[in-house]
Design a protein that fits this description.
Distance between the termini: 110 Å
Number of strands: 11
Structural class: alpha+beta
Shape: rod-shaped
Radius of gyration: 46 Å
Largest sheet: 6 strands, mixed
Strand order of the largest sheet: 6-7-8-9-11-10
């Protein structure tokens, strides 16, 4: 099944058949599923509107217009007709999933039904999307030829060499038909006169020595004959049947204009009665319609000329291509092709050169914008602030950040890696809070969102209990040992805090963790006093016993006195027990 057909029919079901969208007075609305209320849809710079459907959460406005202008459900034959008639080009740029062997064959059958030439150069010039699809599906140097063989055609029978004779014959017939019209009114021309240098202009005015050549389309050039014509004649004019009826161009000294415009400027035509003028124009219309009626209808309204002029005008106003596409109701890719002079170049003059230069400058500016975006992102600016500073949409900012790996998640990962690196580095800090503050100061310029709490939280989630044993800070291991030693030497908590220049609460917290509180120390000391009192109970008097206990424990407890031992003795020993 054709992928594009499935996708577009699903969109029709999701958005049109369920009546979820509507356009009112140029504004687009979507219906909320919760309360059935209509709310206006925001149109982003890229031409997208946000609305959920089976295939995603957004859709191009030009695609939505197509669904509204040409409601489904669709058939493959209908889509092929849209492609052939150029309807898709007004709404879509690239149509992914449309071309396959079946649609190629159906399109080719359409070409044959319309009796169009089938040789390769014609297909390439007039049906480029179809031609490119054959190149993709039939890879190789002779892709179009391979396609023709696959559909049962003989490439040699429909090659350019075979068809060119028919094409020239048709062209000659058109020229003869126009000559017949001019002959009826005694126009002052000689027809198909051959000159010594090989020139054979279709019309020649001997009074002013001017040559006129008749061409089918505004696209047709006479580059090969330019030198011969310019050397032979005082002036040369090319008149064409298909193309703008108002444009007059001059290239290499050759003037080119529509046959309708040319007729209106001729003295012989102006002298004719209105009825006769109308008759000639009617006969000319029949000839032009026989070549391409659709083009004829476009030329009457100057559609292509006005389209290009409008696109150029919008571009000069500074609008981007998606916005212009919305204005003129064609795809933004086709707008770009026109501005580059790759399509309808006959109406854009030299503007594509100016456009290309500006695009080159835009590319340079774009690189600068990306660098600014990266810098702002590293400064921790949110997407909305970056968008305002760089005059971009938030969606576009987020798009670039994702591509550059600089979105919020990536930034957080980069920041945390730097926190980890700084935490792991050995420093002279005595306490953790000082190191945390140092890390904040080190990273605040690059990551303005960093705080003391973030660093602390990272430390306790990644380091505490895992990397605690690694010495990465001067005071981390030293102060604990010193507190223990000083306390065991009999120094008070307050004195320890002053000596080590630590907060009193931190000293007390450390002593509690090491079971070195005042009560704990007294309990341990008293246990040792008890042991020595018993050890010396049978060998000394009480006074001597107290002195000997103090001597044994003096090094460990410098503040211990005989009075302490005596107090413990009378509080914990019974005299009768000691006398035994």
């Amino acid at each position: 099944m054709n992928k594009f057909l499935l996708r577009i029919n699903q969109l029709h079901i999701d958005l049109i058949e369920t009546k979820r969208v509507k356009c009112d007075d140029g504004k687009w609305f979507k219906r909320q599923s919760i309360n059935n209320k209509w709310i206006e849809m925001k149109i982003y710079k890229g031409g997208q509107v946000g609305i959920t459907h089976t295939n995603g959460t957004g859709i191009s406005l030009s695609h939505l217009k197509f669904l509204m202008d040409y409601p489904g459900p669709y058939t493959l034959s209908q889509l092929v007709s849209f492609m052939y008639e150029g309807i898709f080009h007004k709404y879509y740029g690239w149509i992914e999933g449309f071309w396959d062997e079946i649609t190629l064959t159906m399109y080719f059958d359409k070409l044959k039904q319309q009796s169009e030439p089938l040789y390769e150069s014609y297909i390439r010039d007039h049906h480029l999307a179809f031609y490119k699809a054959t190149q993709r599906l039939y890879k190789g140097r002779y892709s179009y030829r391979s396609f023709l063989i696959s559909v049962g055609e003989n490439p040699d029978l429909i090659s350019r060499n075979t068809e060119i004779g028919v094409f020239l014959k048709q062209g000659k017939e058109i020229e003869f038909d126009i000559v017949k019209i001019l002959s009826k009114v005694d126009a002052p021309f000689e027809y198909f006169k051959r000159f010594s240098n090989g020139c054979t202009p279709d019309l020649y005015n001997s009074k002013v020595h001017i040559a006129i050549d008749i061409k089918r389309s505004i696209k047709t050039e006479i580059d090969k004959e330019v030198l011969k014509y310019k050397n032979e004649f005082d002036a040369v004019t090319v008149i064409y049947l298909l193309g703008s009826r108002e444009t007059i161009t001059v290239k290499h000294g050759i003037r080119k204009m529509s046959i309708y415009k040319w007729l209106g400027l001729q003295p012989f035509f102006k002298k004719l009665e209105v009825e006769k003028q109308t008759e000639i124009i009617s006969e000319l219309d029949l000839i032009v319609k026989s070549i391409d009626e659709n083009q004829y209808n476009s030329d009457i309204h100057e559609y292509h000329k006005m389209l290009v002029e409008q696109i150029i005008a919008y571009d000069k106003q500074g609008m981007d291509n998606p916005t212009i596409a919305q204005k003129v109701n064609i795809s933004y890719k086709y707008v770009n092709v026109i501005l580059l002079g790759k399509a309808l170049a006959e109406y854009s003059g030299t503007y594509p050169l100016e456009y290309k230069l500006r695009q080159k400058q835009k590319k340079q500016n774009y690189q600068e914008t990306i660098m600014n975006l990266i810098e702002l992102s590293h400064e921790g600016k949110p997407s909305i602030e970056i968008a305002n500073q760089l005059n971009m949409s938030i969606n576009m900012v987020n798009y670039h950040l994702r591509n550059l790996g600089l979105n919020q998640s990536a930034n957080m990962k980069i920041r945390n890696n730097k926190i980890h690196e700084l935490l792991s580095s050995y420093t002279d800090h005595e306490i953790l809070s000082e190191k945390f503050e140092w890390i904040v100061d080190s990273l605040i310029h690059e990551h303005p969102d960093i705080t003391f709490s973030i660093v602390k939280g990272y430390y306790y989630s990644k380091f505490d209990g895992k990397e605690n044993k690694t010495k990465f800070m001067k005071g981390k291991e030293d102060y604990r040992v010193k507190i223990t030693q000083l306390y065991q030497d009999g120094m008070r908590s307050q004195d320890i805090a002053e000596v080590l220049e630590l907060p009193l609460e931190r000293v007390r917290d450390r002593l509690r963790k090491m079971n070195l509180g005042k009560k704990d120390m007294l309990l341990i000391r008293n246990q040792k006093i008890n042991i020595y009192l018993k050890k010396y109970e049978m060998t000394s008097t009480l006074k001597e016993r107290f002195q000997r206990v103090v001597e044994q424990l003096k090094q460990e407890y410098p503040t211990l006195t005989t009075e302490h031992v005596r107090t413990y003795y009378y509080n914990h020993f019974k005299k009768s027990d000691l006398e035994k």
